[in-house]
User: Fold this.
Amino acid sequence: MSGQAVFWVVMDDTRLRRALARDVDAAFPLLLTAHQDRIYTIALRILADRADAEEATQDAFVRAYRALMDYPPERIEGLSLRPWLATIVLNACRNRRRRASDRRPPVRLGPLLEAGFDPGDPAPSIESIGEWRGEVEAWEGRLGTLSRNQRTAIVLHHVDGLSYPEIAGVLGQPEGTVKANVHRGLRRLREQLEAEGAQRREEMTA
Amino acid sequence: MTNLTTGGRFDDIEAGLAHLGATAPAGLATATLVATGLADAYASAPSPLGHLFIAWNARGVSAVTLAGDPDDFEARHRRETGRIAHRATALPEPLAKAIARRIGGDRRVPVSLDLRGRGEFERQVWMKALEIPPGEVRPYGWIAAEIGRPKAVRAVGTALGHNPVPLIVPCHRVVRSDGTIGQYSLGGPGNKRTILAAEGLDPDDLEAQARAGVRLVGSGTTHIVCHPTCRNARRIQARHRVPFRSLGAATRAGFRACRVCRPAAGLTAA
Assistant:
């Protein structure tokens, strides 16, 4: 990418919707800039694989673009962009997982990192700071112990920050079910943390 | 019973989860824009004429030009298409293969083109040029006649000069109506001769025939008249070969136009 760098203004969703309703082609890059990090985060925390998450994110935005091209402006004006994009990326993750399960066994990054493998993240992020990387790895491992429903609900609510009614709409589940899944997930994570604590104490006294 | 709104019991966990936000990889936005056709990628690729810059997006190939200064290319691409061209390290493998086969004369390989924003007349001219087989040439006037604009010969020449995807849309197979090789947008007439020669034609021989006033060639046995490079014309044995200056002259001599190369009326040697 030589030549001039391009800086897009990050727009809030109300202005984004209006801009998209006016001209999808002109406003789509702004939607991408405003939402790519959170959509990638959802995909990454659901799929636990950078390459898969990157592809799922790209799939999701391409589908979003095609949908927007088909929608009349009134429909675009009425979209809740955050949950709408979350719905699309979850679908992309499901497709990706389906294909991935035909293709290869899941590879866990942890052992590879310990073996000196560099995942080569080109983007400077909080994760590239050593201490945080360990912490994030630990959370990835803990999320991996949740059921799919618990994990999805927790990622949408506590990582992405969607409300319970929004998640209910995204997942097509009753709000009570979403809340119960989040709660069960948190309880499971609590058990995990306690087990890790107990193990650390054991190692220190051993 | 525990409180479903968590009431502080999971504060540490919630804080940990809230820090799991990640940053999208650097090239993701660009790749996504290319995948929607809102931006293009371009890379350099070898060709018989030297290195090319080839630009593409999910809709198809949008530009082919001789490789030069990347900044100049990007500026011109922006001006002509309204889209940013992002430098990529290489063409996607399937695209590179398809283009190489197309340039090598294999017309069966599909290569989609992104010609958004170009005029309807220009597209008609380019689509018509795509019908000319490798190793054959047609005059500008033939394209004009085929697309139903027999008087627009000059405009056809201009449209071919603006062909954004030379080599893929083979504007090099369109020659001047007087039979001379004519101009070429991809580095000038020398390159046009080079590609035609690579496709098995002898440009000097073509021009010599044209100078001698030969526009069409008929077969004394079938009484069918063709463009000199039509595959049917090239099968005519020397002793049965009848040259003509125009379709009118051929028709008067009792010849009919070949249904493959469809010589048009009005292409007359001066």
